[in-house]
Write a structure and sequence with these properties.
- This protein is an alpha/beta fold and 296 residues long.
- It has seven helices and ten strands.
- The strands form two sheets. It has a six-stranded mixed beta sheet, with helices on both faces. A four-stranded antiparallel beta sheet has the order 2-1-4-5, covered by helices on one side.
- Strand 7 (182-186), helix 5 and strand 8 (214-219) form a beta-alpha-beta unit.
- Helix 3 packs across helix 4, helix 4 (164-176) runs parallel beside helix 5 (194-211) and helix 6 runs antiparallel to helix 7.
- The radius of gyration is 19 Å and the shape is globular.
- The model is unreliable at 1-23 (pLDDT under 50).
- Bound molecules: adenosine-5'-triphosphate (ATP) and magnesium ion.
- Adenosine-5'-triphosphate binds at residues 39, 47, 49, 67, 69-75, 220, 238.
Length: 296
């Protein structure tokens, strides 16, 4: 496969599922096998951020990873994106080893990825123009995406002229326009107020449902993870965090995210998963308190 280009022509995109491997569940959109990542500490020691992570994301599935702060969620996503090599273990995407940046994936960072000196349409079309698509074609595709995310009248604005929700919509269009096979999203909505966040979650689900793409979604928020996902993966407390639980979320789709928190199935799943997650959260809290005590 030519890794210098997006995997599919933008012209293939019309909400169609056009990736050949998408039906083959033996080929994972993301597959981490025995992945460990360590970092050197300033004192010359080794800190294990994550240890022996096994994660398989089937094409088309929406999988969330939830865990306490510092449990290695971003580290895992960075390894899936090819931005960070595992110290041990392997990362594959659609059957191929991820060496360098994962070209099958788009990454949506927690921080605002928009370039402040570029207009909305230039920000959205960036991934295409960088891949060699002509400006006219990239603009035409960007306009279609701006319409999809409700920003068609804001194409010529600059990021500082947008609300937080509009910036996130721009970032979503920017990530999706290159037609990735897998979306890697690191707490994309954590900075938004509760209402805007729910609107954005609804919009993300609609896009995802019509796309057939895999999503790996990092969040601190168990409600958000259950509401959106097919599967919720729980990471244990660090150091050396590993997967401590994986839960199927079989709430029927389409889901109405504005009312889902009252759904009895949601409530039961939340109780079960929180029962596991809170053990890890309290371990993290106790470690942090002990460290503070050491420093004092
Ligand atoms: N480049 C690095 N050098 C040293 N340590 C790092 C580096 N990147 C991450 N770590 C450490 O690895 C651990 C996991 O970090 P990571 O950012 O993956 O956690 P996280 O679960 O995403 O946390 P948060 O929920 O706060 O975003 C942390 O203890 C962090 O300090
Ligand atoms: Mg993080």
């Amino acid at each position: 496969m030519d890794k210098t280009k997006p995997t599919l022509s933008v012209l293939d995109w019309e909400g169609k599922i056009s990736t050949a491997p998408a039906k083959d569940t033996s080929i994972y959109a993301v597959e981490l096998t025995g992945c460990t990542r360590q970092f050197p500490t300033p004192g010359g020691e080794t800190y294990f951020a994550v240890r022996d992570i096994n994660l398989k994301v089937v094409p088309g599935r929406f999988v969330s990873i939830v865990g306490p702060t510092g449990s290695g969620k971003s580290t895992i996503l960075n390894m899936a994106a090819g931005l960070l090599n595992p110290s041990a273990g392997s990362v594959r995407s659609f059957g191929e080893p991820v060496i360098g940046v994962n070209r099958r994936a788009s990454y949506m960072f927690q921080q605002d990825p928009l370039l402040p000196w570029k207009t909305v349409i230039d920000n959205v079309s960036l991934g295409l123009t960088m891949a060699g698509v002509s400006k006219a074609e990239a603009y035409s595709e960007a306009r279609r995406w701006l319409e999809k995310v409700g920003l068609k009248n804001f194409a010529d604005r600059y990021p500082h002229q947008l609300s937080g929700g509009m910036r996130k919509r721009t970032a979503i269009a920017q990530a999706w326009i290159v037609n990735p096979d897998v979306l890697l999203m690191d707490e994309p909505f954590s900075a938004l107020d509760v209402q805007t966040r729910q609107i954005m979650e609804n919009e993300l689900l609609q896009l995802w449902q019509e796309s057939g793409k895999a999503v790996v979604f990092i969040t601190h928020d168990l409600d958000e993870a259950i509401a959106l996902s097919d599967e919720v993966v729980i990471l244990g407390a660090g150091p050396g965090s590993t997967v401590v639980g994986s839960y199927e979320i079989d709430i029927p789709r389409p889901r109405d995210l504005l009312d889902i928190r009252d759904d009895p199935q949601f409530v039961a799943l939340h109780r079960e998963i929180w029962g596991r997650l809170k053990i890890e959260v309290s371990k993290t809290y106790q470690t942090a308190m002990a460290e503070e005590g050491d420093v004092a």
